[in-house]
């Protein structure tokens, strides 16, 4: 049964890629689906990209084991800050300004907003280099789960995931991703419901209230708002990293570029917020209950070392029936495939649209989609190499990527959207400060998993102070450049902008 369900799911994904293949004649269609995504597609695309295998295999077990029920603060942050406020604050302004500037990617936006072709090349390199470890962490999480549920060796599971991602994505592009995200999101919601049902009814838990009492008997701090050990600063850093980080992540911002019109934003915000609430609660609440199932960390059969990355795979394997475990596998696969697709699209576009176009524009004009497809395969191959090497636990790998990329882009992007006085020097100072602080502090603390989330949070916070300070003392952009980005007075709605375009065309 589980093989049949898995084959059906894979078949749906490949079919969506196949039927979308003929509609990707330009880079804009391949990368953004022609900027025609409605609210449901946009909301599920945002949610399924936000939450991947890492949340269920890495974060849920690691954070739940370390912080207990205090991990639910992350649920609140991801829902309100990472989803609701992100759509409320960023979506409309991003869609309108990128349309004005003719930008399809984060590096293109930075180039047009700050009149710096060097920033475009720099942004492309940052995206490609630092999203590879993030993608590798997703492959690692999937491979661990396949190993536990199907008994497939880690190596073969990783190879299978890479092949599936490559076939699915290079055929259909963003349109195929958007078409299947609603199905994948539905599978994720159903999977969370099944996971909570079986875990709460397991003999080790015995229901919600009984489970909380048993958890308190192990350690009262596991059910306290502050968590055990007084590590509230580490928990706060995780909330900031996982909630504010998406504001500066190119694969998340891409969803705002592609939305159809202004009327689609509010329903998309509501749907994505509810989706975030259900998914994060299911993951972190289950992770907080792992102390009822384990006396000590389980051992990774490949390395022979105890690791929190095995908590959730072993719990699912031991607690859920075969059909339920298969549904959880599809849940994680759904989340991961959408995340991987967005990561690969954004990273390949960073080279094809932003880097190759800057150096050899004729190539992109004549063979843009082919170049993107080839770079998709390259990116997946590099991610596979890192996933097979297993350089660090999943939580650290993802946190380093999030902190570095978000630290490099958040402040220049956010100030560029809302403050006319942001200067090129201020943007450069902010992005270099975020990138440098993340890398240097991570190396200084020797990639310590306990410190990495705090490093990522600092990498996002420091540039928010640096950009305005430097901008106040450096040469501003010409008025015409600022006027092109912001327009006269308030930024017009997308419908008004579309009418202006129709009049100009006529």
Number of strands: 0
Unreliable stretches (pLDDT < 50, length at least 5) are 495-506
SSE string, helices as H and strands as E: HHHHHHHHHHHHHHHHHHHH
Task: Using the 3D structure, state the CATH architecture.
Answer: Up-down Bundle
* Distance from first to last alpha carbon: 58 Å
Which fold name corresponds to the CATH topology? Answer: Sodium/glucose cotransporter
Q: What is the general shape?
A: globular
The CATH H-level superfamily is Sodium/glucose cotransporter
Number of H- or I-type helical stretches: 20
Q: What summary fits the major beta sheet?
A: none
Q: Supply the number of structural domains.
A: 1
Question: Averaged pLDDT, please?
Answer: 80
Layout: helices, strands, pairs:
Layout: H1 2-20, H2 27-32, H3 39-50, H4 53-67, H5 72-101, H6 106-114, H7 117-150, H8 154-200, H9 208-218, H10 232-244, H11 250-258, H12 265-288, H13 311-319, H14 322-359, H15 361-389, H16 394-418, H17 424-444, H18 452-472, H19 479-486, H20 494-505
Helix pairs in contact: 1-8, 1-14, 3-8, 3-11, 3-12, 3-14, 4-7, 4-12, 5-10, 5-11, 5-12, 6-7, 6-16, 7-8, 7-13, 7-14, 7-15, 7-16, 8-12, 8-14, 8-15, 10-18, 11-14, 14-15, 16-17, 16-18, 17-18
Give your account of this protein's structure.
With about 500 residues, this protein is mainly α. The protein has a single domain (about 1-390), classed as Sodium/glucose cotransporter (Up-down Bundle), CATH 1.20.1730.10. Helix content is about 75%, strand content about 0%. It has 20 helices and no strands. Helix 3 packs across helix 14. The chain is globular, with a radius of gyration of 22 Å. The model is unreliable at about 495-505 (pLDDT under 50).
